[in-house]
Amino acid sequence: MKLDTKHLRYLTPEDWRVLTAVELGSKNHEIVPTSIIDRTARLRGGSSGVNRSISTLAKAGLIGRVKEASYDGYRLTYGGLDYLSLHTHVQRDVVYSVGHRVGVGKESDIVMVADPKGRQLILKIHRLGRISFRTVKSNRDYLKKRQSRGSWMYLSRLSAMKEYAFMVALREQGFIVPEPIAQSRHTIVMSFIDDALPLRQVSSVPDPAGLYAELIGLILRLASHGLIHGDFNEFNILIQEQKVEKDVAGGESGGSNGTDDEEVILVPVLIDFPQMLSMEHKNAEMYFDRDVACVKRFFERRFHFRHDEMEGS
Description:
CATH topology of the largest domain: Transferase(Phosphotransferase), domain 1
Strand order of the largest sheet: 4-5-6-8-7
CATH class of the largest domain: Mainly Alpha
Order of helices and strands: HEHHEEHEEEHHEEEHEEEEHH
Helix content: 25-40%
CATH architecture of the largest domain: Orthogonal Bundle
Number of helices: 9
Low-confidence stretches: none
Distance between the termini: 51 Å
Largest sheet: 5 strands, antiparallel
Structural class: alpha+beta
CATH superfamily of the largest domain: Transferase(Phosphotransferase) domain 1
Strand content: 15-25%
């Protein structure tokens, strides 16, 4: 589904209380009885106020009534979870405005947002329901020992929590990844790297061998920390151009504050971590080899570079 914020500004505090009550009730009920929503929301207007908010939320598609249920109740929709998450980010002064969607993946939506100071950020919304549960569970190290209980929304929330934790840990270890700013439910707010391109959009590089070696080095560095990316490919690697001063023999450059004193280097930025695996995973070797093979295959296809050329040189 696509994030739709047109109803966001019109919800009253009572509507938010009722929507939160449905979320809380969803922890123990697939369909939350209206009586529990009423009891949890505890509106001053009583049941009539709860029913009024339920009607508003249902019309906005944030909750849904299940006709086949043996009792009167509602379930939280992905739209409702989106609104609760956004509301939390707004209340915490993390997000001020929501822009357009800039990316769609198998398991997430990427949306441009801005903070109260106008700084552009990325909102990543995890949506695991787009692929099968069997695929999700087999590819997620942290779900290995869990039962299949819970909804897609629960699994999406868990995926966001784990990805946020990985991003924080990787930055602490010096890996170049987007800055994780906040996490709420199934969403992550992170820095927007505006001067980088996905590797898949890069048509040529001045030194394919150097970039290849750096990417393989990243895979090995992750492994030295006990981790495997699990989806290390041209879609999940950004390439950022950085200007650095030339390292001229003798300690001084011959130019004078001009571009002659600078050179451009390509810096890989890793993204997308919910599928990251431990080296202890039973299929660790297969995922590690697959990450390496993805890099090899892309460089052969895009840059006509083979890794054995390095070995033979």
